[in-house]
Amino acid sequence: MSEKHEEKPTPTTPLAKRRVGGLGRGLNALIEGSYEKKSERLGLVPHPANSVGLIPTEQIEANPYQPRTHFDQEALQELAESIKVQGIIQPVTVRQTGPAAYQLISGERRLQASRLAGLEAIPAYIRKADDQQMLEMALIENIQRENLNAIEIALSYQRLVSECNLKQEELGDRVGKNRSTVTNYLRLLKLPPDIQIGLRDSVISMGHARALLSVDDAAAQLGLFHRIVAEEMSVRKVEQLVRQGVAAPTAKNAPATPATDAPLVPVAEIKRAERHLSDRFGSRVQVKPTAQGRGEIRISFDSAEDMHRIISILQPA
């Protein structure tokens, strides 16, 4: 009579029952094999410094020093979908602030996307850091890794100089840039707010902004900026105008602009209108304001058939 051998159940944990957000067996096995206790893997007790562990996403709070305030939701959703399939390729970086509390140092996009993907825990590198080190690491990590626009980079440099007490030479060494590059970015913050917004929103390029910095008068800078937008000037054309003194400040005794002139349409409003109309017509739309408050709207078409399609949209139902 054969003896039946009862199979002992294999101990499982919530992490072992299901993949933690598709980490991938390589990274998952590495992290799980680093700790014998489930409580350590899940961040319920302090991790040793300079170690990697699985941290519940609900225990990670945002970095108060995060230099980037806007994250494109469509891009975040795309990253979330990628994480569902590929998992977390690179751990986020955190510091431990309590037995089951962590503060993000870097990896804000990965954390947000992981939450969108429904991950309960993500791999994190635990570091020791005080508040100033937190700020410095967050700023430098963003400058080096994220696709920041020129104004965000300039603001990050300014914070490193003022809040971390770094000299421009030291700052250049930290971010891997020479001093002249750092100086050029910091100078952007001297431009009028409207021009900074235009640079931030990619209405003008860094080359345009550097040319505008050669103009001493803020009013002249703004006037030339609006010409750049309205006439779609190249950087070379702007540099030529500046050399020729076309954008020179108005003389003190020159007559003032008549008060009856309508104010210029804000650049941000123009770009919003262009995006809205482009989506509406399915074609490129350009809004061309003038200094007197008038302007025109141009709708591009590729063929006679495309033109008739646009006309049909314009006609009342």
Beta-strand portion reads 5-15%
The total of beta strands comes to 7
Class per helix and strand makeup: alpha/beta
**CATH structural fold name of one domain:** Conserved hypothetical protein from pyrococcus furiosus pfu- 392566-001, ParB domain
Distance between the termini: 87 Å
- Estimate the mean pLDDT confidence: 75
Helix/strand order: HHHEEHEEHEHHHHHHHHHEEH
Shape summary: flat
Q: What is the C-alpha radius of gyration, as a whole number of Å?
A: 27 Å
Helix amount, in percent?
A: 40-55%
Count the DSSP helices. 15
Largest sheet: 5 strands, mixed
CATH class of one domain: Alpha Beta
Any guess at the CATH architecture of one domain? Alpha-Beta Complex
* Low-confidence blocks of residues: 1-45, 249-263
Strand order of the largest sheet: 1-5-3-4-2
Tag the structure with descriptive keywords.
317 residues; alpha/beta; Conserved hypothetical protein from pyrococcus furiosus pfu- 392566-001, ParB domain; two-stranded antiparallel ribbon; 15 helices; disordered N terminus
Written description of the protein model:
The protein has 317 residues and is an alpha/beta fold. Among the domains are: 14-129, Conserved hypothetical protein from pyrococcus furiosus pfu- 392566-001, ParB domain (Alpha-Beta Complex), CATH 3.90.1530; 192-243, no CATH class; 270-314, no CATH class. The protein has helices at 14-17, 25-33, 38-41, 73-86, 108-116, 131-145, 150-163, 168-175, 179-187, 193-200, 206-213, 218-231, 235-243, 267-281, 304-314, and strands spanning 51-56, 60-61, 92-98, 101-106, 121-126, 285-289, 295-299. The chain has a five-stranded mixed β-sheet with strand order 1-5-3-4-2, sandwiched between helices. β6 and β7 (295-299) form a beta hairpin. α7 crosses α9 (179-187) and α8 (168-175) crosses α9 (179-187). The longest helix has 15 residues, at 131-145. The protein is flat, with a radius of gyration of 27 Å. The N and C termini lie far apart (87 Å). Mean pLDDT is 75; it is low at 1-45 and 249-263. Keywords: Chromosome partition, DNA-binding. One of its GO terms (biological process) is chromosome segregation. One of its GO terms (cellular component) is chromosome. Residues 1-20 are annotated as: Disordered. One of its GO terms (molecular function) is DNA binding.
